[in-house]
Design brief:
Largest sheet: 6 strands, antiparallel
Number of domains: 1
Number of strands: 11
CATH superfamily: PPM-type phosphatase domain
CATH topology: Phosphatase 2c, domain 1
Structural class: alpha+beta
Strand content: 25-35%
Shape: globular
CATH class: Alpha Beta
Length: about 250
C-alpha cells in the first residue's frame, strides 16, 4: 500500500489575500495519512489567522498518532475514530477562540475545516462549513460531505431547487463554522479507498469555479497526483476563480 499526496493553494483572480490553509502528512509507517483544508473568514487578516490556527492545532493534535504504527489502530471502532477527529476539531475551535480573546480586532474571525485521516485504505472524514471532501473513482465523482450553509438547508427542505442556488444572495452564508463560542460538532463520514481511488479535499473556491461535472475530463488527461492537483487549480483560474482555490489530493496506489 502506498499513498501519493499533493496539495496547493492559490489566491485566485480577485482576492487580495489568501485566507485558505492546506496541510498533509504521511504517517511514519507510510500506511496512514492526514489531509486538511481550512478556508478562513473575518476580515483581511482574521481569515488567514483563523485557518492557520485551525491547521496548526489539528497537526499538533494528530502528529503523535501519525507516529504510531497503523496496526495499533486495528481494533478501534468507527465511533472511537470519530471521537479522535472530533477532539481535533474541538481543539481547533478552542485555539481560534483563544486567538479572538487576546485581540479584539479578530473577534469575527472563523474558518471552515475539512480533514481526512486515512488508515489502511479507509478514509475517515470530519468537516465543518462548506469546504468539501470527494471520492474520485475512475470517472465517478462522489461528494462525501454536506455543506453547512443556509442554501443547503433550503435545498434539503425543498424551499429552493438546485437551479436557484446561483441566484441566491445569501448562498455563501454558513450555518456552522470554527470560531463559535458554543461546542462545535463536526459532520463525519467514512469511506473505503480502493487501489487507484483518489480522495480530494478542497475549498469552495474550487467548486464555485470548476463544477465537479468537469473533473473526469481533467482526471483522464492527467495521471500523477501532482499533475491532477495542478490541473484542477489551473482550470479554476482559467474560469476566473473569484475566491482562493485550495486542493489536497491523495491517491492510493
Amino acid at each position: 500500500m502506498h499513498y501519493d499526496i499533493a496539495g496547493l493553494s492559490d489566491i485566485g483572480t480577485v482576492r487580495s489575500s489568501n485566507q485558505d490553509a492546506v496541510a498533509w502528512q504521511l504517517g511514519q509507517d507510510g500506511r496512514q495519512a492526514l489531509l486538511l483544508v481550512a478556508d478562513g473568514m473575518g476580515g483581511y487578516h482574521g481569515g488567514d489567522i483563523a485557518s492557520r490556527l485551525a491547521m496548526e492545532s489539528v497537526l499538533e493534535t494528530m502528529a503523535p498518532r501519525l507516529q504510531e504504527p497503523t496496526s495499533s489502530y486495528a481494533g478501534l471502532s468507527d465511533d472511537a475514530i470519530r471521537m479522535i477527529l472530533q477532539d481535533s476539531v474541538t481543539r481547533a475551535n478552542d485555539s481560534i477562540m483563544d486567538g479572538r480573546a487576546v485581540d479584539a480586532s479578530l473577534d469575527k474571525m472563523g474558518t471552515t475545516l475539512v480533514l481526512a485521516w486515512v488508515l489502511e485504505g479507509r478514509g475517515y472524514v470530519a468537516h465543518v462549513g462548506d469546504s468539501r471532501c470527494y471520492l474520485l473513482r475512475g470517472r465517478r465523482v462522489t461528494c462525501l460531505t454536506r455543506d453547512d450553509t443556509v442554501v443547503q438547508d433550503m435545498l434539503d427542505d425543498g424551499s429552493i431547487k438546485a437551479a436557484d442556488v446561483p441566484h441566491m444572495p445569501f448562498r455563501n452564508v454558513l450555518t456552522k463554522v470554527l470560531g463559535a463560542p458554543s461546542s462545535i460538532q463536526a459532520s463525519y463520514q467514512c469511506v473505503e479507498i480502493g487501489v487507484g481511488d483518489r480522495l480530494l479535499l478542497c475549498s469552495d473556491g474550487l467548486t464555485n469555479a470548476l463544477p465537479d461535472q468537469l473533473w473526469p475530463d481533467i482526471l483522464d488527461k492527467n495521471q500523477d497526483t501532482q499533475s491532477v492537483a495542478e490541473a484542477m487549480v489551473n482550470a479554476s483560474l482559467d474560469n476566473r476563480a473569484s475566491d482562493n482555490v485550495s486542493v489536497v489530493l491523495l491517491t492510493r496506489n
